[in-house]
Amino acid sequence: MKMVFSQRSANRRLYWCIAALLLLVSACHGNNMQYPTTQQPASGNAPVVTHPQQDIPDPASQNIPSVSAPAGIFVSSGPTVSDRVLAQEHVAGNLIRVGWDQLQPAPDSYDFSAIDSLISQARQHNKQVTLSVLNGPRTPQWLYEQGAKAFSYEFKTRYSGRGNRQETIPLPWDPTYLTYWGKLIASLGKRYADNPVISLVHITHASKNGFEMQLPEERVGSRPETAAQGPWHDAGYTEDKHVKAIQQVITDFATAFPNTPIDIEIHPVLDSVEPARRVYEYGKTHYGKRFGLFSAWWSGKSQRWNEALYPILQNACEFSFCNIQMIGNQTRQPERLLNGSLLSAMQEAEELGAKYFEVWSADLANTALKHEIATFSSTLKQD
User: Fold this and answer.
1) What is the full DSSP assignment across 182-247?
2) Containing domain of residue 327, as a range?
C-alpha cells in the first residue's frame, strides 16, 4: 500500500540523503563524527586515533547464508506476554526479553526454562519470537566474584521501574566478562539455533540497560560526558577497546546462530555516534545481509541526540534490514510519539524502510487502536 507523505516527510528524506552523503565523506576521511552541536573536550588536546581500513573480503565473495529479514508487528512487553494480545491475527510474534542472571544462576549452571516456556507459548498461537538476553544490570553477581571488573552508576529514567537506583555493569572490554558471555551465547546457539520459531536474535552486550548500546553517562562541567573526560575515561575507556569488545560479541552471536537474522541496537556512546558507525560497518562487512540494525528509541521525532543515527539506520534499511521498537506507547505516553500517535511514528519508520516493529503490549491491548494497527500490519505483509 502506497502512502502519501507530508512535505515535512519529503524534507526529512532530503535531509537523510544529505546526511548520509556527509556521513560517507566523514567515514572516508576517518573523522570522529559527533552528532550536531556536540562540544569538543575542554582540553582540546586529546590524541587523535585513526583506524586504517581493513583488508576484509566483500560479503558477496563469502559463504554467507541468505536469510529472510524479519517483518511484522511483535509484542514488546515484560518477562511474560498475554495470550489475548499474542493471539491477535495482526500480531506476528513476541519479543523474548530475559535476564542473564535468570538464565545462568551459577558459572556452570544454565536454566533456559523461561525461554522454553515463551517459545512454547508462541508455537501454540502459531507465532514467531525474537530472542534477546538482557546484559548490563542483569549480569549475575557471581561474574564479579569470578574477577570481572565492575562499573557502578545511578540508573536515571522516569520511564522504567529500574530507574533512579544504583546499578552495576561489567566493563564492556573485561576479558572475564567476555569469556562467560561468549559461553552463554554459544549455549544459546546449541539449544536454539535450529528452532524455526525464532525469526530474529537481538545482539546484546554490557551497556546501561543491557539491551541498547549506550553507556551510562554523567554531565561533566555542564557538558555531556565524553571519552576524554568523566567516569568512563577514569575507568580506562577508549573507543577502540569498546568497539572491539562489541565486535567480539557480534562474532559470538553470528557463530552461535549461523542461519538466523541478527541485529544490534545503535545509540550515541559518550556523546559520539562513531562507535555505532564502526560496529555497523563491521557487521555489514562480515555478515552481509543477515546483519541489520535496531532502533529501540523510535518516536518518529528527529531530535538533537538521534539525528546523526538516521543515516546509519537508513543505510541498514537499504542494504539489509532495520528494525524498530517504539520508545513508548500511545495509550499511556502519547507525548513520546510523533503527533502523539503510534501510527504516525510507525509510518515514519516505514518510510525509512523498516518492516519490523516491536509495539508495546499496552497499545496492542487497546481496542481503540486495534483497527489502525491491524491495517498497518497488513501493509507490512503485502510488502
Assistant:
1) HHHHHHHHHHHTT-TTEEEEEE--SSSSSSSSPPP--EETTEE-BTTBSHHHHTT--HHHHHHHHH
2) 62-382
Do the Cβ atoms of 33 and 272 come closer than 8 Å?
yes
346/373 Cα distance (integer angstroms): 10
Q: Which of 106-115, 148-157, 374-383 has the lowest mean pLDDT?
A: 374-383
d(CA 309, CA 267): 7
Residue pair 247/284 in contact by the 8 Å Cβ criterion: no
**N- to C-terminal Cα distance for the chain?**
8
β-partners of residue 358 are 74, 325
Whether residue 103 is predicted with pLDDT greater than 50 in this model: the reply is: yes
Q: Does some domain include residue 42?
A: no
Supply φ then ψ for residue 5, to 5 degrees.
Answer: -105, 160
CA 293/CA 323 separation, integer angstroms: 6
Cell of 122: 508462541
DSSP 113-169: HHHHHHHHHHHHTT-EEEEEEE-GGGS-THHHHTT--EEEEEE--SSSTT-SEEEEE
HSE-CB of 117 using CA atoms within 13 angstroms: 12
Mean pLDDT of 118-132: 98
Q: Is 235 a domain residue?
A: yes
φ and ψ at 99, to 5 degrees?
Answer: -85, 150
Domain count within the chain: 1
pTM: 0.84
| CATH number of domain containing 113 | 3.20.20.80
In a domain, 53, yes or no: no
Q: pLDDT tens digits for 191-201?
A: 999 999 999 99
What 3-state DSSP class applies to 297? Answer: strand
- The grid cell for 349 is 519508520
Cell numbers linked to 16: 537523510
Residue 28 belongs to a domain: no
